[in-house]
Write a structure and sequence with these properties.
It is built from five helices and three strands, in the order βββααααα. The protein is mainly alpha-helical. The chain has a three-stranded antiparallel beta sheet, with no helix packed on it.
Length: about 110
């Protein structure tokens, strides 16, 4: 079953779907709409909540963000950094950008 937009609610910090916890946006509340859109387009309800239950139950290793990143999600503020520095605003661009940042740090030591 696909996510339905009308079943989402946001209390200013946490996103819920049909009264079930989806993700928390403690510092970057502006990322909520992009997160929700990507979730709706790339996951079905059962898949996401099965992976999240493993994390919240202490069995798994995936956070809500890691679950979305597994299918290519990149946060909005990181997309801006990538565009600013001439990288594609996607997961591959982010991987290349992080590597270039590591190299800059290593060279400055």
């Amino acid at each position: 079953m696909r996510f339905q937009k009308e079943l989402f609610s946001f209390d200013g910090m946490s996103l819920y779907y049909d009264n079930k916890f989806v993700a928390r946006f403690k510092y970057m509340k502006s990322n909520m709409s992009g997160f929700r859109s990507f979730l709706m387009k790339n996951f079905d309800v059962d898949e996401y909540f099965a992976r999240l239950a493993d994390h919240c139950g202490g069995k798994g290793k995936e956070s809500p963000l890691e679950i979305l990143e597994s299918k290519g999600f990149v946060l909005n503020h990181i997309k801006k950094w990538l565009k600013r520095d001439g990288y594609q605003p996607n997961s591959e661009g982010y991987r290349l950008w992080r590597e270039s940042q590591r190299q800059k740090i290593a060279q400055s030591r």
